[in-house]
Amino acid sequence: LEPHKIRGIQLLDLRNLSRQQEIVTNMYVEAKLQFHTILDQVFPEYRKVFGDLYSRVSLLILKEYPTSEAVLTAGESKLAESVIEFCPSRSGQWAWEKAKKIMDSASRNPFQINVYQSHVINLRMYIELLFHYQGHLSELEDRIVALANELEEYKIIQSIPGIGEKIAATIISEIGEIDRFNHPKKLVAFAGVDPSVHSSGKFTATINRITKRGSSRLRHSLYLAVL
116 exposed, middle or buried (CB, 10 Å; 0-12, 13-18, 19+)? Predict the structure, then answer.
């Protein structure tokens, strides 16, 4: 029985980690929304500088130079040095191009002078919060993949088009021991994707919706895979 016991613990661990990842992801999304709100009141033009606003170099530059005034005071040369420091893997030419974009965005920014210091404090606070959530999500993802790789069906289920590492881990953890479903229809019902039945007397509806019973997380993962 020992192998079955170990497998049960692995599946439960995987489920807990997957659900924790979902919780932290929701908190991260909420922090992004709050960050956007503050950024729109301080430096809205900055959004156009980097392809990924939430990349490490983007957030570090914004934390160092959160206002148009700070950017214009620093100058293009100082900005290029900061970009190289925060992203040493990219070329010097790329850093100078980004520095020029930052300068242009500061010149176009509607708020040339920041009146409220509280906005800058809040902006830097949310940047720290975003880094915090990114670190947690990265750690959770590594742990989930490492744990899921110990399960035989993890690689098998990824052979289905649309199912990657994260979705595969969620599907496996939410289903648990597959042996507890002695018929495919029971697994379909557990996912809540079986059609509901609506009938009264001699009337039987021809268009029915899915029941949406069972595990909502499993059903959501299947929906993402279909997309």
Answer: exposed
Same domain, 53 and 123: yes
If asked whether residues 218 and 172 sit together in one domain, one would say yes
Q: Which two tokens stand for residue 195?
A: 């059609």
Q: In sequence order, which residues have a C-beta less than 8 Å from that of residue 196 and are 6 or more positions away?
A: 208, 209, 210, 211
Mark which of 114, 148, 182 sits at the end of a domain. Answer: 148
For 115-127, the pLDDT digits (tens) are: 789 999 999 999 9
CA distance 171 to 13: 14
Q: What are the angstrom distances between the C-alpha of 207 and each of 204, 210, 212? A: 9, 10, 15
Whether pTM exceeds 0.85:
no
Task: Examine the pLDDT at 23 and tell me if it is beyond 80.
Answer: yes
Q: How far, in Å, CA of 36 to CA of 28, rounded?
A: 12
52 and 103 co-located in one domain: yes
